[in-house]
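Two proteins, back to back. First:
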Amino acid sequence: MTTYSGITHRKVQVQSNFERLAFLFMRLTGIGLIILAVGHVLIQHVLSDVHNLTLEVVAATWNAWGWKVYDMLLLAFAIPHGVNGLRNILEDYVHSQQAVKVINVILVIFVVATLIWAGFAIASFDASAVLN
């Protein structure tokens, strides 16, 4: 009589730590984006008159550092979140490891350059030049 233990052994390839962190990053920035983007829409398009949205209104809003920080957080969550989603999609279709590495380097350069450029534009916006 033979006995069957019911145990099977198989090897499972565990994803790299980077992919786990990217997964967690997408979830956390997604929650942040829901809060920030819904807040932005409510404040800019529901509580304020959408037909009154002009450069002067934006200048008056960005005259306060709190709104600049709010918009920088929105930017800092949205750009990497979207590019990380693009990276995941591209890795589904690009099968060469070398090409994936090149794409990842290009995407990182794009994210860093965009965050620096746009963050500098928000931080250095001179509201007095518009409001006078």
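And the second protein:
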Amino acid sequence: MKTEGGGEQAWPDLAGRLTGQGHVLPVRVYYEDTDFTGIVYHAAYLKFMERGRSDFLRLCGVHHRELEAGRYGEPLVFAVRRMELDFLKPARIDDVLEIVTACEEARGARLRLAQSVRRQDDVLLSALVEVAVISREGKPRRLHGEIAARLSAAT
């Protein structure tokens, strides 16, 4: 991407940012995310939160491809095991939202994440998400200590 002066400008960081309270990912609400009234359809929030969790991991240096390729020993994958959602206020078409993700616990064969969807200072949705660490065959596996430390240090 070129700047007005002709120099190269870095592409914007699409993965959001890590803060002292966790990870923040900005998301714009598009027509495809809404129902016929222009309000965000409930399942769209799941997609927004998945992006937040994926980019949180990415910025912590935990990459899905590396896990699956066996960088930390046996190939591992993450699978959402449980979600507890509280829909508080609606989001609407063209809103700019922030998906906030914080790791509450990273030990054993699971991650426990707190997530929220916010519009400025308003919390629209809050969620607790339990993610299982599993083998390709679906068997529970312990989270590598290095990964647990990275995730815990980010929040």
